[in-house]
Amino acid sequence: MMILQQLSIKILTWLIIEILLNLLGLDELADYSEFIFNATRTRPLTHQS
Asked: How many independent structural domains does the chain possess?
């Protein structure tokens, strides 16, 4: 039950922040920062010949 509660809080927080950023016109900035932070975690596979 505790895991479900923590997950619900994280999702609700994310949703509120997304709505606020969208209303302020800063949603693209948030998407860009997500791209930057995710780009350091995952790397595309390269095809070696």
From this structure: 1
Distance CA 44, CA 30 (A): 22
Residues in the chain: 49
First CA to last CA distance, the chain: 50
Among candidates 27, 10, 6, which has minimal Cα distance to 18?
27
Q: What's the predicted TM-score (pTM) here?
A: 0.52
| Percentage of the chain exceeding pLDDT 70 | 61
Indicate the average pLDDT of the chain.
77
The domain in which residue 22 lies consists of: 7-39
